Amino acid sequence: MTREIGIGFLGMGNVGSVVAATLLERADEFAARVGAPLVLRRVAVKNPAKPRDVELPPGVLTDAADEVLTDPAVDIVVEVIGGQGDAGDYVRRALAGGKHVVTANKELIAKAGPELFALAREGGAALRFEPSVGGGIPVISPLLRDLPANRVQAIRAIINGTTNYILTSMAQRGESFEDALAEAQALGYAEPDPTNDVDGHDAAFKLSIMASLAFGTHVPSTAVATEGIRSLTPQDFQYARELGYVIKLVAIAERRDDGVLARVHPTLLPDSEPLAHIDGVQNAVQIRGDLAGTLTFQGAGAGAAPTTSAVLADVLDIARTLAAGAAPAWDPGDWRSGETLPVDALETRYYLRMTVVDQPGVLAQIARVLGDGSVSIAAVQQKETDAEQGTAELVIMTHAARELAVASALVTFEGLDEVREVNALLRVEGGA
Amino acid sequence: MTREIGIGFLGMGNVGSVVAATLLERADEFAARVGAPLVLRRVAVKNPAKPRDVELPPGVLTDAADEVLTDPAVDIVVEVIGGQGDAGDYVRRALAGGKHVVTANKELIAKAGPELFALAREGGAALRFEPSVGGGIPVISPLLRDLPANRVQAIRAIINGTTNYILTSMAQRGESFEDALAEAQALGYAEPDPTNDVDGHDAAFKLSIMASLAFGTHVPSTAVATEGIRSLTPQDFQYARELGYVIKLVAIAERRDDGVLARVHPTLLPDSEPLAHIDGVQNAVQIRGDLAGTLTFQGAGAGAAPTTSAVLADVLDIARTLAAGAAPAWDPGDWRSGETLPVDALETRYYLRMTVVDQPGVLAQIARVLGDGSVSIAAVQQKETDAEQGTAELVIMTHAARELAVASALVTFEGLDEVREVNALLRVEGGA
Hints:
The structure is a homodimer.
Chain A: E1 5-10, H1 14-25, H2 27-34, E2 38-44, E3 61-62, H3 65-69, E4 76-79, H4 86-96, E5 100-103, H5 106-123, E6 127-128, H6 140-146, E7 152-158, H7 161-173, H8 177-186, H9 195-198, H10 201-215, E8 217-218, E9 225-226, H11 234-242, E10 245-256, E11 259-270, E12 282-289, E13 293-300, H12 304-323, E14 336-337, E15 340-341, E16 347-357, H13 362-372, E17 377-386, E18 391-398, E19 401-402, H14 403-414, E20 419-428
Parallel strand pairs in A: 1-2, 1-4, 2-3, 4-5, 5-6, 8-14, 9-11, 11-15, 11-20
Antiparallel strand pairs in A: 7-10, 7-12, 10-11, 12-13, 16-18, 16-19, 16-20, 17-18
Helix pairs in contact in A: 1-12, 4-5, 5-10, 7-8
């Protein structure tokens, strides 16, 4: 054992505390695996006086990030602050100074990945981010190290535990979105401000990272067509179930001849799809490669312990390379800018729920509008009539149709007196 | 691009042909990824004159393995011969000569792993074997590189596609083992001599490798309690289904305080277990780590293209390290010899099917024998009576009981006139 590998932390919240505690408790095991001891040198936090779950060695805590970033005894910086504020600045400075960085910051990688990888390359440093996607499920490593011979064709994933917990509650207990959200918040599965999760942004960041790695093209999160789950109602879950489907927030990226189409939205999945059975806070990622076929990776997508597993996988891998006297060579590639496609380019099946005037000829009129746009109806059901309002509820499943044609039909519906409201338009994936 | 990375092949069957074809077709992509061109130098086969699916560069084919093993321009040797004969000798010589080796040979790694890793270390070479388990599903890489911070507690896997195809046919179509085997053979899913698959040896080799990596202890395949699927009958599938179970050949390894208990046998799994729904030639591996929780990896566990994905993951990873001027540092560890436990140490639930004399008092007698051994009955059903023989068929599900106690009860049953035959004794996993 010739040298020590110094570890510094930026932030020490739930995840950071478990990472630090594990590093301290398993120091001997990790030293044996790596070939050198890992030593916790510096931990920068906002308030060093705050009580913590982990007992850190004396003199390690500081309120100055600089003490982590400039300490020559710190080889690897673990960034667990999150967000785009200070964290991004710190990561840039660490890489520019030749420090290796492990980060769980999906927003930072999704938005600034190519810039940061270039910085890392110039500084001779490694930038690793396995914990940014899928908690303890290996996702980044499979894409980079296990499937490099494949042409990846598609990724489909349930990668936000908060929304999956809410959708599972709505499906299994017929709850409203508001009630299911409140319950998730009470259990700590959703944050007080749930925007980032329920509006799909968190899933879009993660899909951005996975798609960029899989296709070698930077797919920024702004190029991911993103819809959240706020507008889903118990009726949609009930009707979906009657048709043999469940509703999940699915992140999908596909390679087309002319570019990458990436999207996050509530999706009807048939019961026959494995992703339809990923419930609660579980996550699952499906990667389809031309050699390996479809691989599915499933597990806990969040939580301090699973995320610690991913942080330490990256830390130990860098440390092992350093202990062997080599530079960490692993590089996520250039993410050349390439074509990304708008969701308009999509062709898929659709589920449509609408409230119409309950009188003869209305269904024929709706069918004609859809037919004029070459949207072919696979099934139509009249669900409920409201005698007082004189309205009926229609649920329509289409065959594969062009997104633009469906959107155009909706515009026409809005101009029809007989259509009171288009209540829901959901995309359908998989199965027949 | 400073140097070329030379690749040699030992064997060129189904898998080797696809590996070679992919190396040739994607040469430019791989050179960009690796930072150096990969060049196919030598391919040793028994009969160079035989027509092949892949068009190899002129002068590459030879019938002398020595030409691969001694060619200084060959950096990485891909061994796709299989078995324990010549392949083991060649791999030893390659490693001793400092050549890096990628092998799909599960029998070789399971039996001679520790010896080969020591050879590799002395020769300064890498020995990689991702394709030996799970076809295109990453299994070795997650255990070594993605979960190093975890204490792995258990592995449960369906890792033999042949038997899973046969069991799926038996479950879904009520076929006999013989018919389902014949069908699998006709489709190419089972070999003319199916022993290695249907008797559980192939699964035991794979479990041996996974358990040794997970627990850092050599778990030789001879220490894996192994039972095949030949004795399963349509009745067992029917009764299991009525009870809410399916029957799968499951490979299980668990870390206990006093050692590792590893076993491969037909197993009743409740419908609520994800592994219960892995059908046909699909494989799935569950790894339970103390940090990551239970992770499931699913995909095609065999086939030339998926196996090529795994072979080339290893080849490209070694090549990238070589191109960077470093020695491949990745080491599967020492596999220190440690305690492995006999299946006698097991405590689990059991399914028991027996033919008994159809007369009053017999059930009480059987219950007393089990009770005397502290084997508690969870459910008992009388299935069919045979008036001519004067016998009845009993199906018993036990609560968790000690394997030795159940085995001892079976010995007692053999001595009872009232018990005509114990038709089946199967272990039950998961669920309640």
